[in-house]
Design a protein that fits this description.
3-stranded antiparallel sheet, 53% helix, 5-stranded antiparallel sheet, 15 helices, single chain, alpha+beta
Length: 418
């Protein structure tokens, strides 16, 4: 079936013809349909009861091509089905932080899901300087549950291997392999740079052997470590929040990959927000420092909270199952030593992936609004250079950075040296 983006009238008629959705919307005679997507990948609509607007759902239509580029970059129709499966899987594991899917239609490339009408995109909130007191606790819970329960630490080997085969996501993984790990480090036409970014900063990314080797190692890990089911694109634009709730959305890049990739993506985006706050926080005579402290506190609290919760899930599972991943032993000394080594390696990989994610947002195809919306070219370029310096250190020195406080110290030092 040829893809066609639904017109408002067509979508309205379709939704009224789906009994479960029609009932959810209050069985309206008329729906208000508004497109709200950013245009990069999909078509996103709010569908509301015209007389009772609070009765509303989100409709996502996923074309079989990259919308940002067009039909010259084709994608298979199955990508929407993979996203629905991931939402339902993550929702089962962490229902307080994943929206509900009400309906899916693979023929029309669409799904209908819970509308988070009292929430905003986290990136927008961070740009506005909003403090979310439960954010770190919620995200660390989401990460611990989704990453642990999809891994060999919990699943039996046969079930895990079947899950890996079912979650192969070749096309969107290829986008990540190219746009995160490859194109930003070469002279590729998809790259774009801000007007004032020094040429030396771009050349350094491409010509520093230690950096290029580190990126190659992270690309290899991304392509070959099928550790758990990942969200795959967990940036601050894929999280919706208010003061009391946090929801993770848009897992269309979901696949089995390295645990550290999702954690690194979150940390990368918080660091980008941290450096860009130096401009946003000074608008209208303000000061950026207090919010920058809060942002780095989120980095610390997310990693620390994730570590505690992940290890707790691991120990609880071993206690219930009476089994240990490394085999039985008279006491827990060997198991605890393995857990400590495991978590240290996970932290090291997290820093490497965070560095790659930061670099691609500065020189690659897809940018972040907290930086692109800085109208002063020289101020933007100065912040971008700081982001690149931080990212390079995270990659090249990741093995020697053993605690999350090392990351906090690095961010402060880069900012102070500006």
């Amino acid at each position: 079936m040829e893809f066609a983006a639904l017109k408002a009238s067509e979508l309205s008629a379709y939704l009224r013809g789906v009994p479960a959705v029609h009932k959810l919307l209050g069985e309206p005679d008329e729906l208000d349909i508004v497109e709200v997507g950013d245009g990069n990948l999909n078509y996103i609509y709010f569908a509301s009861n015209a007389k009772t607007p609070e009765m509303s759902v989100v409709v996502k239509q996923a074309p079989p091509f990259l919308r940002l580029v067009g039909k010259t970059w084709p994608l298979t129709r199955e990508r929407m089905e993979r996203e629905v499966a991931a939402l339902r899987r993550f929702g089962a594991l962490c229902p307080d932080h994943v929206p509900t899917v009400y309906h899916a239609d693979s023929q029309l490339f669409l799904m209908v899901m819970q509308r988070l009408s009292s929430h905003c995109i986290l990136r927008q909130g961070l740009m506005g300087g909003t403090i979310y007191p439960k954010l770190a606790d919620h995200l660390s819970t989401y990460l611990a549950h989704t990453l642990f329960f999809g891994s060999d630490l919990f699943l039996s080997p046969d079930i895990k291997k079947q899950a890996v085969a079912a979650a192969v996501n070749t096309e969107l993984c290829r986008i990540t392999e190219d746009l995160v790990f490859t194109y930003p480090f070469e002279d590729h036409p998809s790259n774009s740079y801000s007007a004032a970014l020094p040429r030396a900063a771009v050349d350094r990314i491409r010509r520093t052997p230690a950096l290029r080797v580190a990126v190659g190692e992270m690309k290899w890990a991304f392509m070959n470590r099928a550790e758990t089911l990942l969200h795959g694109d967990l940036h601050t634009g894929s999280i919706m929040v208010n003061e009391d709730e946090t929801y993770v959305i848009d897992p269309e890049f979901a696949f089995y990959g390295p645990m550290a990739f999702d954690i690194g993506a979150i940390i990368a985006n918080l660091l980008l927000a941290y450096f860009s706050r130096d401009w946003h926080g000074r608008q209208d005579g303000g000061s950026p420092e207090a919010y920058q402290v809060w942002l780095l506190d989120q980095v610390r609290a997310i990693w620390s909270g994730f570590t505690a919760k992940f290890l707790s899930l691991w120990r609880e599972h071993e206690g219930r199952s009476k089994t240990h991943f490394i085999g039985d032993e008279p006491d827990r000394a060997c198991a605890d030593a393995f857990k400590a080594r495991f978590m240290q390696q996970l932290f090291t990989d997290t820093l490497g992936f965070a560095g790659c994610k930061m670099i691609r947002r500065i020189v690659g195809m897809a940018k972040v609004a907290e930086i692109t919306r800085i109208p002063d070219d020289s101020a933007r370029a100065a912040i971008e250079v700081r982001c690149l310096r931080c990212a390079e250190t995270l990659l090249v020195e990741r093995a020697s950075m053993t605690t999350v406080d090392d990351v906090i110290d690095l961010a402060w030092k880069v900012e102070a040296a500006a």
